[in-house]
């Protein structure tokens, strides 16, 4: 069993109103020293088997077609907590 | 300048209907081998200065009070792409 993490963020050239709202609220709430915030999504995907190349290829396809909108979002796939079996 | 990443996930004991909907849709879409999906949020926070202990303490407070709901969510803070200045 392994866990894959898919991080999905808006592409840098796409405006992120949620992140901007957070960044604007911070000084009002007493936090300084932050120049920008961007908000994205994180998916934890539990695999039945090991996170081998075939499984990761599947997850990349999944991210492209289901988890992210590749027109406006970038994603990264990585493996976490892999245990050899 | 440094970037801090805050990952916010629902606590394990809290049901995640979004993740469950994705996990249920996967076999229908031709993906097998996934036993569970959980969806959370990821925040990229650009700092004006270095990600020292004071800045990270601030970000932890920010995550607790603004980015996550600690009643139902867990968060982790980590530093990415730090450059010495």
TrEMBL record, chains A, B:
Keywords: ATP-binding, Cytoplasm, Ligase, Nucleotide-binding, Purine biosynthesis. GO terms for cellular component: cytoplasm. It holds the Pfam family PurS. The keyword Ligase applies. GO terms for biological process: 'de novo' IMP biosynthetic process. The keyword Lyase does not apply. Coiled coil: none annotated. GO terms for molecular function: ATP binding; phosphoribosylformylglycinamidine synthase activity. It is found in: Cytoplasm. Its main location: cytoplasm. It catalyses: N(2)-formyl-N(1)-(5-phospho-beta-D-ribosyl)glycinamide + L-glutamine + ATP + H2O = 2-formamido-N(1)-(5-O-phospho-beta-D-ribosyl)acetamidine + L-glutamate + ADP + phosphate + H(+). It is an enzyme of class 6 (ligase). Its EC number is 6.3.5.3. Pathway: Purine metabolism; IMP biosynthesis via de novo pathway; 5-amino-1-(5-phospho-D-ribosyl)imidazole from N(2)-formyl-N(1)-(5-phospho-D-ribosyl)glycinamide: step 1/2. InterPro entries: PurS, PurS-like_sf. SUPFAM superfamilies: PurS-like (SSF82697). Part of the FGAM synthase complex composed of 1 PurL, 1 PurQ and 2 PurS subunits. Belongs to the PurS family. PANTHER family: PHOSPHORIBOSYLFORMYLGLYCINAMIDINE SYNTHASE SUBUNIT PURS (PTHR34696). Part of the phosphoribosylformylglycinamidine synthase complex involved in the purines biosynthetic pathway. Catalyzes the ATP-dependent conversion of formylglycinamide ribonucleotide (FGAR) and glutamine to yield formylglycinamidine ribonucleotide (FGAM) and glutamate. The FGAM synthase complex is composed of three subunits. PurQ produces an ammonia molecule by converting glutamine to glutamate. PurL transfers the ammonia molecule to FGAR to form FGAM in an ATP-dependent manner. NCBIfam families: phosphoribosylformylglycinamidine synthase subunit PurS, PRK05974.1. This is Phosphoribosylformylglycinamidine synthase subunit PurS. It comes from Spongiactinospora gelatinilytica. The lineage of its organism: Bacteria, Bacillati, Actinomycetota, Actinomycetes, Streptosporangiales.
């Amino acid at each position: 069993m392994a866990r894959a993490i898919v991080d999905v963020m808006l592409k840098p050239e796409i405006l992120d109103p949620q992140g901007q709202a957070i960044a604007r609220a911070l000084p009002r709430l007493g936090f300084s020293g932050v120049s920008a915030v961007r908000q994205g999504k994180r998916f934890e995907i539990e695999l039945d088997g090991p996170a081998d190349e075939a499984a990761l290829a599947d997850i990349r396809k999944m991210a492209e077609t289901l988890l992210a909108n590749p027109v406006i979002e970038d994603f990264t796939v990585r493996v976490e907590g892999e245990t050899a079996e």
